[in-house]
């Protein structure tokens, strides 16, 4: 009789604990965020769409590559300069520091998905992946002129025009542009309407005697530029994402604790 009671208790215990533990484990798995469908391979799409050189530059900058990869999941629009544009810009690009290069590359994407239609109806200042939220730097102005979408900055470089849709796969869009867009943080600002007394052309075309002076004037624009540290200041969306995933982590560990408690309770009952 006693033995039978023990056996019954043991069966009851197993019957109680197993479903409880299984339920807890099941819920823990359910609470974990569903694996997001893989975002499109943006650099591969760029390379196919006439921006092979720009894709290669991103691949060669670890900071830029990792930020592009993580931004793709949260919505992103890339304006990739054509191979011709990158080739024409190569001497100026080479002159940048590694930070400057990463900033320039990140400057060509915004952390929002714009379909071809919404791109045409969104005029104004846009933050980029290079923007440090607190400093509000590294922005450009998107403008529709007639049927053409243009990108301008405060730097003296020419306006870039959107030439083609390379990829439109919500939440990622890639458009090819005909020029490298120059952030005012890295390149000489456009001459202001009320020119300063000093003759500006010296910096662009240094003469033999004035070269050192011109270099001296031009250098700080690059050297002093507060290159945003991609690690220090991730775009807002990335911060949200990391908050989300740590919340999921907390949830997961709560369910694990609940499962342990259920097992503990069940065994004290037995
Ligand atoms: C994307 O494509 C490039 C080249 O096609 C490849 O080197 C890279 O590994 C791919 N990245 C991912 C995340 O699949
Ligand atoms: C590169 O930097 C040097 C030194 O600051 C300058 O003299 C030269 O003009 C720059 N070249 C280009 C293409 O910007
Ligand atoms: C855009 O960037 C410039 C230069 O860094 C800055 O002065 C300006 O406040 C920014 N504008 C906006 C709307 O963020």
UniProtKB/TrEMBL annotation:
Signal peptide start-end: 1-23
Low complexity compositional bias, start-end: 219-228
Record PROSITE patterns: FAS1
Keyword Nucleotide-binding: no
Pfam families, sorted: Fasciclin (PF02469)
Keywords: Cell membrane, Glycoprotein, GPI-anchor, Lipoprotein, Membrane, Signal
Database matches in InterPro entries: FAS1_dom_sf, FAS1_domain, FLA_A
Presence of the UniProt keyword Glycoprotein in the record: yes
Alphabetized SUPFAM superfamilies for the sequence: FAS1 domain (SSF82153)
Disordered: annotated segments: 188-248
Bias (Pro residues): 190-200
Coiled-coil residue windows: none
Protein topology in the membrane: Lipid-anchor; GPI-anchor
GO cellular component, one term: side of membrane
Compartments it resides in: Cell membrane
Residue stretches making up the FAS1 domain: 38-181
GO BP annotation list: plant-type secondary cell wall biogenesis
Function: May be a cell surface adhesion protein.
Record-stated family: Belongs to the fasciclin-like AGP family.
Name of this protein: FAS1 domain-containing protein
Species whose genome carries this gene: Lolium multiflorum (Italian ryegrass)
Biological classification of the source: Eukaryota, Viridiplantae, Streptophyta, Embryophyta, Tracheophyta
